[in-house]
Amino acid sequence: MDNVADYKEIVEIIKDSGGERFKRCFQCGLCDTVCPWNNVRQFSMRKIVRQASFGMTEIENEEIWRCSTCGRCPERCPRDVSQIQSGIALRRIATEYGVFPEHVKPVRAVAGNLSGTGNPLGEDRATRGDWGKAAGVAEFTEDMEILYFSGCYLSFDKRLQKVAAATAKLLKAAGVSFGILGTKENCCGESIRKAGDEEVFKKLAKDNIKTFIDNGVKRVLVSSPHCYHTFKNEYPEFMVHFEVVHINQYLKELVDAGRLVLNGELEKRVTYHDPCYLGRHNGIYEEPRDLLKAVPGLDFTELPENRENSLCCGGGGGRVWMDTPKGERFSDIRVEQAAKVGASILATSCPYCITMLEDSRLGMADSESLEVKDITEILAELL
Description:
Elements: H1 7-19, H2 30-34, H3 45-53, H4 72-76, H5 83-96, H6 106-117, H7 130-134, E1 146-149, H8 152-156, H9 158-173, E2 178-179, H10 190-194, H11 198-214, E3 219-222, H12 225-234, E4 243-246, H13 247-256, E5 269-272, H14 286-293, E6 299-301, H15 330-340, E7 345-348, H16 351-362, E8 371-374, H17 375-380
Parallel strand pairs: 1-2, 1-3, 3-4, 5-6, 5-7, 7-8
């Protein structure tokens, strides 16, 4: 990086970008022992933090883009180094100077899409609410119980629109008064922030906050753990507070209150994959399991790595937009684990997880023996 004079300046930039805790690291290596990358290739978060503490000058290094922000290493760190924030700080510097390795370049296009159309896929904003029209979902009004914020992937991706439709079906069956904002929605901005583009994140956040306030939104229901995390933990940085509920929490409320009744049976073995941003980052472990165990006939079994120790799908930290070579995909390991426990359905609660796990399932020799489904899809089939 010729534009940066010396290591002291780099260190200051890293600190200003949110990586001020990197100097706490005393190189114990616990972060490397739990990092999912070391299941598929050699990778050292400890090395990145060490380099950053001395003013890392090789921002071109593609290693800084590998972290999926899964949250395993901060859990184990005895010095509260905040490895994720340190890594994001390096990405912010790389973004500021326009330095992107070849496999990371799609992030630049995604940032452009987010700025132009409000979604990472570059889809026409005018079609954002079309899934809702097809499912008979009304536009949100202030007198409704809750706003359903479907998010980008559930609004545009054909596979994930099925999850949005299943969610709407369940809410209607429970008599919930809800609506969507459709074309007024923007991406929550979580992943582009983790990929280092703070400017785009702030624009998206401010636009969404203004829209929520203008439309009288007080309670927000989300399907994506990434939306949940951002609205609940990051939007308060802008001095606003909305009540945020994940769909698993809300459905558990509805079942417990007797508003949602599950009929019929599902005589299949089902296992559950904990999304990083639902579990480790936000502590939501039991509600999805309670919902699955409430299904008559369902045979529930755990994966070998579950709850706090869940294996990341590989899609967090903006990596859902980057190319990961076959042989380096965490999701390949996950579908193999599901097959080994004899599950016919691998359930989860995250659009990124479904995307990554579906890709890996299709690469299995016997792909038809396993289905990847959101919990809402399983429950909606019982109505």
